[in-house]
Amino acid sequence: MKKTVILGALTVAGIAAGAASGATLDDVKARGKLNCGVSTGLVGFAAPDANGEWQGFDVGVCRAVAAAVLGDPMAVEFVPTTGQTRFTALASGEVDLLARNTTWTFSRDVDLKFEFVGVNYYDGQGFMVPKELGVSSAKELDGATVCIQTGTTTELNLADFFRTNNLSYEPVPIETNAEAQQQFLAGACDVYTTDASGLAATRATFENPGDFVVLPEIISKEPLGPLVRHGDNDWGDIARWTLNALISAEELGITSANVAELAAAPTNNPEINRILGTEGELGGMLGLDKDWAKRAIMAGGNYGELFEKNIGENTPIGLSRGLNAQWTDGGLLYSPPFR
Ligand SMILES: N[C@@H](CCC(=O)N[C@@H](CS)C(=O)NCC(=O)O)C(=O)O
């Protein structure tokens, strides 16, 4: 088992070393499309709608980058990836960017050689059980069967949590969230564990969400964010500052509704001007034009707009901002300055 894990890591690292470093921006421009790795389907984060059009909070990151780089938020080829396939897809160059509720960890950065460009959702791992199981704490799960997605941090945290608490469990390994949902509803496992946001998103699609409870324990830190390959820092900068532009836009009150007006002429706020290109040369420093951030914000709105539309309290997923509030509101969202 251990051997497979080590070999897997080496294989991915090997491909990373072989993939073109540098010039991702040129490749994307020449192609006229951003290849963006997303999940196979997690409503609210990334899933095709009834018309086959990808929607969601992670999809919003892909569209913002495409808008900044290519001038068109629709110029994205979405590549569905599983917990297992996502890293090979990025390392091999099949995708330019991975925006797939992926946790920033030491080994994914240092060993797999990826660069997380920021965090778009601060999460943690939780547990969901059928109400009829009568369980109110994860510590009561001794001997439970647990549906768990392979190739995830979830798998590792679960083992740690049960070991620390001297509990036993039987894993039911699954590949995708759709499969987890199916198995869990069919009673193939007592418990489904994943990122708490994923539990909320999954439960929202159940016919009777009220028949299931999410237990109070959050057993890990899961900072989820977009990532690129090591070795092309210029491309990493574009992804990082596009995400930061969405976060700063919310902090500064730039929205999809007012961005065109704010970008038409310099305002009395110099940072707004620098972001929107009416002052300074930030776009040029990224190898883009002056309107890059304006287009990114127009694509789906600022961070808060993306959150509210896709996963917020007025959606079936119903997530509150919590840790994902701006630092000015007691949360962890804090973009470095645009200067
Ligand atoms: N954040 C964890 C877990 C990510 C993960 O794969 N979560 C599942 C459950 S929420 C998922 O996104 N599934 C979507 C899919 O199967 O395509 C990680 O990076 O390993």
TrEMBL record:
Top-level taxon in the UniProt lineage: Bacteria
InterPro entries in the record: Bact_solute-bind_prot3 (IPR051455), Solute-binding_3/MltF_N (IPR001638)
Leader sequence residues: 1-22
Location of the Solute-binding protein family 3/N-terminal domain: 33-262
The keyword rRNA-binding is assigned to this record: no
Pfam families noted in UniProt: SBP_bac_3
SMART domains recorded: PBPb (SM00062)
CDD domains the UniProt entry points to: PBP2_BztA
Keywords from the UniProt entry: Signal, Transport
Membership in a protein family: Belongs to the bacterial solute-binding protein 3 family.
Record-linked PANTHER family: AMINO ACID ABC TRANSPORTER PERMEASE, AMINO-ACID ABC TRANSPORTER-BINDING PROTEIN YHDW-RELATED
Protein name per UniProt: Amino acid ABC transporter substrate-binding protein
Record lineage: Bacteria, Pseudomonadati, Pseudomonadota, Alphaproteobacteria, Rhodobacterales
